[in-house]
Design goal:
With about 180 residues, the protein is an alpha/beta fold. About 35% of the residues lie in helices and about 25% in strands. It has one domain: Rossmann fold, CATH 3.40.50. It has a seven-stranded mixed β-sheet. Helix 5 links the parallel strand 2 and strand 3. The longest helix has 14 residues. It starts with a helix and ends with a strand.
Length: about 180
């Protein structure tokens, strides 16, 4: 799918994508810099979108690691399956709330998320964040892009430690929350 078709899909589904454009390279780099993917065995991404964060993860991860990418938009999934045919990358057309069904008893070293929690129901948010916390390894981290610093209080309900950083080099400017 072309970039212009992906943008049309993005704008057609603002209530589920929660974004006006895809993540910038600077934002992706900011997210990835909060992790050490070279030592990770299992990585999860929630909200694969156009694959910009996925590509950043793949570029930095250990080639023997496994990446599970959750995306509820079928068009985005089809595009990402073509873009990322690697055997260790699994594109999943399902809600991140079903994370536990795909982990097969393993724990994730990192969970990267661009889910629009401001637009997701309280029940779904609760399910996703509870399962994310349970899915992390002891030293793991949940790394979230958000456009409001106020969401930090939401993440503090599920994680004992939440650190925020900011980047202007994205449209709109964004926070990266690192939750442990």
């Amino acid at each position: 799918m072309s970039k212009s078709n992906l943008l049309i899909e993005l704008y057609s589904n603002l209530s589920t994508t929660g974004a006006i454009t895809f993540s910038s390279k600077s934002l992706v780099n900011k997210m990835i810099s909060q992790s050490d993917l070279s030592k990770a065995n299992l990585i999860v991404e929630m909200g694969g979108g156009d694959g910009s964060i996925t590509q950043g993860i793949i570029d930095a991860m250990n080639p023997n690691a496994k990446l599970l990418v959750f995306e509820i938009n079928a068009s985005f999934c089809e595009s990402m399956k073509k873009q990322f045919p690697q055997e260790n990358v699994m594109i999943i057309n399902d809600s991140a709330g079903n994370l536990d069904k795909y982990l097969e008893g393993e724990k994730a070293d990192y969970i990267f998320s661009s889910l629009p929690f401001s637009l997701i129901s309280k029940e779904a948010t609760d399910e996703i964040l509870k399962k994310s916390n349970l899915a992390l390894s002891q030293s793991g981290a949940f790394i979230q892009i958000c456009y409001s610093y106020l969401l930090k209080s939401l993440f503090k309900k599920y994680f004992s430690q939440v650190n925020a950083s900011f980047t202007l080099k994205n449209l709109p400017p964004a926070f990266v929350m690192v939750c442990k």
